[in-house]
Specification:
about 120 residues, five-stranded antiparallel sheet, alpha+beta
């Protein structure tokens, strides 16, 4: 039976005022399947092309922290101990930092992990 899901694209936005970004990942939430998952991969060459002075280590750390929250890793702090829905909403809440997410999109699927991989390949690789 198909289930509904919501997803957002994880973006690196080096200079918010220019509204330029590089897609770096996808986070997908499917409540019916009790699923919250994410994939990230930073294309450093693409990012460096328009943000040569960006701190790549900082960006990698922020992406790792986001994935730790997504997985519910206790090392990510209090927010990582919340339920799946609350963690997803925290992840997709608007931010004005170098790490942002797209508006939330929705769909229907039978296998949320498979859809996550498909979206990641289409949008981030």
């Amino acid at each position: 039976m198909p289930s509904s899901f919501d997803y957002a694209i994880v973006r690196i936005v080096p200079r918010v005022e220019r509204e330029e970004f590089v897609n770096a990942g996808v986070v997908l939430f499917c409540p019916e399947e009790n699923f919250l998952g994410g994939r990230v991969r930073l294309n450093e060459a693409r990012l460096a092309a328009f943000a040569p002075h960006i701190d790549m280590e900082l960006v990698h750390n922020r992406l790792a922290g986001l994935m730790a929250v997504c997985k519910g890793d206790p090392s990510a702090g209090t927010v990582a101990r919340l339920g799946l829905r609350e963690r997803f909403h925290w992840i997709v809440s608007p931010k004005s930092t170098v790490l942002q997410v797209s508006p939330v999109h929705c769909g229907i699927c039978a296998d949320p992990e498979r859809v996550l991989v498909k979206l990641f390949r289409e949008l981030c690789l």
